[in-house]
């Protein structure tokens, strides 16, 4: 009975996390989190190969605001997001898994995960390790990661912070590779990363909601003069009255760098955004305020506004106006471009003088959802990557104007399978009309999956990136990135699966960075045992 009670508590926690399954008896409905926060919520389990994304100066984290749903009163205007809860609708419950696979180039790829429920919570330990043998000379690389996390939620009848969720996470990893596309292709780089974060949130009290986030990210490079530590603390809070909502977002970052050329080894960054939200009618809500961001050298005050309009059942129009600044560290850049001259980089502030987005979402309850719109920003301090020498990158700055139309389609799992597709167009140019390097004009990611007789699961996916320039004068171009993949998983019994993945089926010569060819066609065989 105790284990059943723990499982029911876990189930209720996840249902609350994913959203409510039944609509409230009210004319007001909720806006989806990702329209407000800029987060892509992907319900579909992807195959193991990571989808490549171009980030740099045009990264999603810079284009879209990352605010918590608790901060935004307009989120109450739309139907809650429907998640696939079928995994909870059966008697199969596993504490973890062990999986291993071998391929032409992956020798081996190991993953393990173990979770155990505690009273009002779950403790999890995880491990992953992979070694890729060379497909070209000096392309061998490895990554090992070890971590754990804790999810805990207080009882709703608790005398202290009832209904509060607590999350702790820690990961230790090391990643080694070579600059095989440079003039010295045998040069090795080893990145050691210790990362920890916590999340405390409460949405149980209808009058006061809050979320506290914190993280510490330490990175060092073996054999190179580079160490960096980033402390990041955020607070989201919302007080609800009958006629107005008062919100506050605050963020504090403290970065320490030790490298060859850092003139400011330590730098702090502070953001405050007070807002007032109003419900004009049952179908229209808005939130208005201003953003204050400050470093030791600079201070900015910018307006902030958002508006949501419910056009019909399941159809919502959302607009946001949010000029902003972004604190960028060498650690951020290194995670985007692993071939960066990071020991000669420093912190900097990127300002988007004008930034807004307009999005429309249509959701047909449990069947599908479509999100479309466009994002725009202009900046006089946007950064981009360029080759300061062959195979090694530095950053430069430019005036940039960028407009990005997009559309996402998500067909939820059903008897016909599932589908997820994301299409994004992009036009990002400087003030003289050149396209920003590594800013593709089109990105497409799609995946379709189907399960036969609850035994054989298949999935086919496509990543496509239209050609892009590698220099600011637009004289060098990389051809289209095309990665077509297929995965098969056969269920022998309730615990044992056999998996096969085909990666880069058409064996296209793909590049994310100039001179650095991605892995060619590969077949990967694996097994997975559930604990």
Describe the structure.
There is one protein chain. The chain is mainly beta and 531 residues long. 6% of the residues lie in helices and 57% in strands. It has four helices and 28 strands. It has helices at residues 2-18, 33-37, 60-63, 330-336; strands at residues 96-103, 106-118, 121-132, 141-153, 164-178, 188-202, 208-222, 227-240, 245-258, 266-279, 284-294, 299-312, 315-321, 324-328, 348-363, 368-389, 392-414, 417-425, 427-429, 442-452, 456-465, 468-469, 477-478, 481-491, 496-503, 511-513, 516-517, 522-530. It has a 22-stranded antiparallel β-barrel. The chain has a two-stranded antiparallel ribbon with strand order 22-23. Strand 26 (511-513) and strand 27 (516-517) form a beta hairpin. The longest helix is centred in the first third of the chain and has 17 residues, at 2-18. The radius of gyration is 24 Å and the shape is globular. The model is unreliable at 1-91 (pLDDT under 50).
